[in-house]
Amino acid sequence: MHELNCPACHGRRNHKHQLCPACWRALPAATRGRLALNDPYAHIRRHQLRAQLKDHTPLGVIRVSR
After folding, report:
1. SS3 breakdown of the chain: % helix, strand, coil, rounded to 5?
2. Residue 49, number of CB atoms within 10 A of its CB
3. Which of 44, 45, 49, 55 has the smallest CB count inside 10 Å?
4. 62: number of Cβ within 10 Å
5. What is the bridge-based pairing of β-strands 12-14 and 3-5?
6. What 3-state class would DSSP assign to 58?
7. 41 neighbors 34 (Cβ within 8 angstroms)
8. Cβ–Cβ under 8 Å, residues 46 and 32
9. Under 8 Å CB-to-CB from 18, ≥6 apart: which residues?
């Protein structure tokens, strides 16, 4: 399994995941649900997540579009 650094805490994450398990669980349930969707807007939500992480937004308040 190939692992990368988590963009939120710099811990280890699986290459198929956006965050490490601890950071993923720290996201609001609605945000996790929206990020798990695989639809035409998924790349936009991933971009929104990365932008908020870059701005050092606390994980518990990160929101992405529907």
Report:
1. 45, 10, 45
2. 23
3. 55
4. 21
5. antiparallel
6. coil
7. no
8. no
9. 7, 24, 35, 46, 49
Q: Look up residue 36 and give its two tokens.
A: 């798990």
> What residues are paired with 4 via a beta bridge?
13
Interatomic CA distance for residues 41 and 38, integer angstroms:
8
Joined tokens for residue 50: 């990365």
pLDDT given at position 1: 57
> Beta-carbon neighbour count of residue 7 at 10 Å?
15
Q: How far is CA 31 from CA 2, 3, 48, 60, in A?
A: 25, 23, 11, 9
Those residues of the chain that have pLDDT short of 70 are 1
pLDDT score of 40 = 96
